[in-house]
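RECORD TYPE: protein structure
NAME: Flagellar P-ring protein
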Amino acid sequence: MILRLFLTCALVLVTSLAQAQVRLKDLVEFDGVRGNDLIGYGLVVGLDGTGDGIRNAPFTEDIMANILERLGVNVTGEQFRPRNVAAVLVTGTLPPFARTGSRVDVTVSAIGDADSLFGGTLVMTPLNGADGQIYAVAQGSVIAGGVAARGEAAEVVHGVPTSGSIPGGARVEREVEFTLASLSQVRLALRQADFTTALRIEQAVNGHFGRAVAAMQDSGTVVVDIAATRTASAAHALSRIENLVVAPGSRARVVIDQRSGTIVMGEEVRISRVAVAQGGLTLRVEETPLAVQPNPFSAGETIVVPRTDAAIDNDPGISLAEVRGGTTLAEVVAGLNALGVGPRDMIDILNTINAAGALHADLLVR
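PREDICTED:
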């Protein structure tokens, strides 16, 4: 019953998505309009005894000494072992067209043996791009992703206390040199390469302007001629086409998550007529040791006699059953539901049907 309900919900959801009209900005990436990854190495202070152990994380002591020396405090040769600091990696993304002084969200993650970043403050940390240049500087109070509490004999952890975020915690100090207005053409890169979708995008753009301004290069690229759009700049042209709606094409695909037992099918999935039989073996071993006591007032010892009951049970499973070929997703779901098995067994059945060549879809196992 659970599997039937789940597959029915998946059918409704995936069918609705496949038939939906999607905005162009949600289907493609505009050439040059992209973010840049940033990374930095810093120190979180103000922790309540949950920071790094200096002996296990010597790099924490090094960065702490460097920061103090930059502030005019000489700690050369000193032994200090605070538990209220933690070395962290700070990551973020410099958004496209970010200007000097704008704010960027960052994520802070402990790299030592700190127990929690709850209540900590990130000290000024430069963030570098892939070219080694500093593009932003991060600092601020860390919002921890979880919390941990510990007693003498028990401990409870909720979420991930060794990772957190600082909304708007980095300030942009260097801009990425890119002039959108200088482009004579803009490439639209599809997030999911598909010839049908690329053709529909070309037709939608040309239909909007009433002339040939877009041309499909391949399944993942559509080129827009800015001059042919007769707009003031590339930015004006993109603003006119980014909200155009297109019905994207999709490949037949079955996605299986083995960890949670989740199965999701696309609308285009088809199954040829096939017969399925499924069963299983259960190995059962029971230990019931028997203690034999000596007679009263005797010099004997208590003896434990092992007693083991081992058996192999042959689960009935399902007998040979026919799954009729489905021409629609509804028929495929109805045929699989007719087997009457749980999600875990259904994953094995789908794998076997695919191996037999009867599943006409991409099978992705995560």
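COMMENT: The two ends are 24 Å apart (CA to CA).
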